[in-house]
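Appendix B. One record, verbatim.
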Amino acid sequence: MVTVDNRGTAGIAPKANIVALKALDNEGKGRISNIIAALDWVLANRVQYNIRVVNMSLGAGVYESYNTDPLTVAAKRVV
């Protein structure tokens, strides 16, 4: 069921809560280690905040196997 808020905006998940973590700077730049730290925070706090979905839109070079790439390994831990 889609509902409309008091501004006339409808959403697909009107009862969803968003936990926003900022791992990059204002230019969208940062270190992979900051993103991994954010994923670790999600893992540590998932029950407290009922986190069930993580959405990331990132671009980074791939220089090693997905079995050893630190960001991929961190993402697998969260899954």
